[in-house]
């Protein structure tokens, strides 16, 4: 399945008064990693995806994290994000955040390929992913 890696620095705004990452910030880090992963898998920036596929996004419908080690202001962490499951209209992701090679946080989430639901004002509904998206998500990262 498709995978990417990136390095990020823990910033002051990510931390609580004790200087360790406030846990919801990990989900923001994972969300940004998801955007980068999908952009790389599909070969285009997020704003171009909306033009190409005429969809409403890929919202998270389930998220879970496990915390092994704290990370702190100023730490440089590595994040590996992988698409681990591809369904008809959903896909599963795994994020592994490491500090100096040690696993600090692991996250898992399920996202759906969504379109606007004409039967519910402002609502979304899952839709089958285009075949080319499925093929790229299933590809091994180069």
Task: Briefly say what this structure is.
By secondary structure, the chain is an alpha+beta fold.
Your description of this structure?
- With 142 residues, this protein is of the alpha+beta class.
- It has a single domain (3-138), classed as Hotdog Thioesterase (Thiol Ester Dehydrase, Chain A).
- The protein has helices spanning 24-42, 46-53, 131-138, and strands spanning 3-9, 60-67, 76-86, 90-99, 102-112, 114-116, 124-126.
- The protein is globular, with a radius of gyration of 16 Å.
- The mean pLDDT is 95.
List the helices and strands and how they pair.
Blueprint (H helix, E strand, L loop, with lengths): L2 E7 L14 H19 L3 H8 L6 E8 L8 E11 L3 E10 L2 E11 L1 E3 L7 E3 L4 H8 L4
Antiparallel strand pairs: 1-3, 2-5, 3-4, 4-5, 6-7
Could you name the key traits of this structure?
two-stranded antiparallel ribbon; alpha+beta; five-stranded antiparallel sheet; Thiol Ester Dehydrase, Chain A; 142 residues; single chain; 3 helices
Strand and helix order:
EHHEEEEEEH
Morphology call: globular
By CATH reckoning, the class would read Alpha Beta
Strand order of the largest sheet: 1-3-4-5-2
N-to-C span: 11 Å
Residues in β-strands, percent: 35-45%
Give the class from helix and strand content and strand pairing: alpha+beta
Number of helical elements: 3
Biggest sheet character: 5 strands, antiparallel
Q: Could you tell me the radius of gyration in angstroms?
A: 16 Å
Average of pLDDT: 95
């Amino acid at each position: 399945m498709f995978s990417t890696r990136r390095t990020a620095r823990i910033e002051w705004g990510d931390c609580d008064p004790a200087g360790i990452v406030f846990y919801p910030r990990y989900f923001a880090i994972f969300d940004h990693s998801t955007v980068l992963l999908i952009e790389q898998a599909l070969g285009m920036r997020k704003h171009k995806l909306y033009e190409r596929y005429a969809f409403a996004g890929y919202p998270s419908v389930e998220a879970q994290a496990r915390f092994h080690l704290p990370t702190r202001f100023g730490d440089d962490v590595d994040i590996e994000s992988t698409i681990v499951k591809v369904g008809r209209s959903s896909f599963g992701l795994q994020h592994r955040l490491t500090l100096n090679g040690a696993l600090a946080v692991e996250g898992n989430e399920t996202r759906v390929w969504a379109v606007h639901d004409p039967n519910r004002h402002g609502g979304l509904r899952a839709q089958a992913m285009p075949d080319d998206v499925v093929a790229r998500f299933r590809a091994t990262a180069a």
